[in-house]
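Sequence, please.
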């Protein structure tokens, strides 16, 4: 249910490649990881509020395994 989901938002990381992805995560109180192997640039993603920038799928996996 919604309350159960809200209790676990700290465990959620949205992965996206454009500023709108990051904004959508932010609007829903979810951390965002920006990825530069899609369409967006690191600057665009960081300016939008991405908590982390990854340059490859391996970077995403490494970060998730460490956190």
């Amino acid at each position: 249910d919604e309350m159960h989901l809200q209790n676990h938002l700290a465990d959620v990381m949205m992965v996206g490649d454009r500023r709108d992805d990051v904004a959508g995560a932010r609007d829903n109180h979810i951390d965002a990881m920006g990825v530069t192997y899609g369409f967006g640039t690191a600057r665009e993603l960081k300016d939008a509020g991405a908590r982390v920038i990854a340059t490859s799928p391996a970077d995403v996996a490494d970060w998730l395994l460490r956190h």
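The longest helix spans residues 57-66.
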